[in-house]
Amino acid sequence: MKHAFQADQTKKYLHMIKPLDLIIVVFLILASFIPVGIFSYQEGIKQSAGVQEILTAVVTHKGQVVRKIRLTGHHGVTKYRFTNGKAYNVVVATGNKVQIIEANCPDQICVHHAPIDQAGQSIVCLPHKLIVEVRSSSGRTFGGIVN
Fold this sequence. Notes:
The protein starts with a helix and ends in an 11-residue tail after the last strand. It has helices spanning 2-14, 19-31, 34-48, 109-112; strands spanning 55-61, 64-70, 77-84, 87-94, 97-103, 122-125, 130-136. The mean pLDDT is 86. The chain is an alpha+beta fold.
């Protein structure tokens, strides 16, 4: 009984759909992929033109840049110890990734964060007001969006 009722309801709604409605829906679905195509095309132009994107880890405290570490082409290990009174964080760049490996903040969220290596990614230590973020020379952020 219930199945027959659902079939009747489905038929009722199918009669309401016109062929032009389906064309509009398909067009809107296809149009939703236009931004992806545009961004992919722009990235392809940059790569074919030989424009190399340079990634840099930027360490800021209360909005002031305290250290920059170039990640593109980085080899080996670079350590930076940020100290502000009794507060400290140890930032380490290994290859093209950066992370905070040690801090004396109570929650240790920044220490447990995975290493970052993509433009727009960041690690934040709220108690110490310290931010480590990866910036791109082209202005690209995570996901390929240019700001």
